[in-house]
Amino acid sequence: MEAERGKGIFRGGVDPVQLYISIAGLGYFYVSNMQTLSVVFERDLSATSPVQEREAQIVQIVLSYLRTPES
């Protein structure tokens, strides 16, 4: 990421500890509530496809946060 910052792709001023906590929280909530959410939404969120979809969503959220508006 350091090499990309010079190209203006990623914004500066991101606290790595806060970023880590946010990423961990996004993943932890899904895993820790998977069974309850599966019942509430009437779908098996532990199956491979929904887990992959959630992973892709988390990656998109984090990249959207890190990218500069111009990139």
Question: How would you portray this structure in words?
Answer:
The protein is an all-alpha fold and 71 residues long. It has one domain. It has helices spanning 2-5, 16-32, 34-41, 48-66. Helix 2 (16-32) packs antiparallel against helix 4. The radius of gyration is 15 Å and the shape is elongated. The mean pLDDT is 91.
Task: Outline the low-pLDDT stretches.
Answer: none
Terminal Cα separation, in Å?
14 Å
Gross morphology = elongated
- What's the tally of helices? 4
Helical percentage = 55-70%
Structural class: mainly alpha
Q: How many β-strand runs?
A: 0
In N-to-C order, the SSE pattern is HHHH
**Major sheet details:** none
Q: What Rg, in angstroms, do the CA atoms define? A: 15 Å
**Percent of residues in beta strands:** under 5%
What's the number of domains?
1
Quote the average pLDDT.
91
Which oligomeric form is depicted?
single chain
